[in-house]
Amino acid sequence: MVILNTLFFCLSIFFYCLTLIDPGYVPLKKDFLGLMERLIDEEYHLDYICINCENLSPENMMHCNYCNKCVQGYDHHCTFVNNCLGYKNHKYFLLFLLFFTLYMIAMIYHSMFAIIEISTGAAVYPDDEQAVMNLKITINVYLLIVIAFHCPIVLLQDYSQIMKLCR
Question: What's the whole-number mean pLDDT along residues 118-137?
Fold first, then answer.
């Protein structure tokens, strides 16, 4: 049980880091005429302007339609943490997924052990503990669905790109 609590504590810390840390938002500069003069002087192409923010955009910047902001090193907008993933919080996302996976493995082990105890009759739980066990199993199923959704996103990314974002 100590392992579960420790993993849950680490998971909570990284979840709050993901939701509270700025992912790399590009500050808005509402000087559109100055931007156009700069484009003409430095011979930039119009592809270097974000049409939503009217901002000069670096190469690795993309606009998030959920947040309505430009993010450097944009990976995706994670609705689970309600924040974009950019170059400033991508390492926290990977650590969150790691601890989430470890927590899920520990919870599945704990739940399966409890199911085996209940089904064999080795341990009889009072009604309130049985309700807690059923809740744990339900939460495990939900978390498995979430992790099954996020693992392919992380695994299909270019490994060198992920390592570049973590530096």
Answer: 67
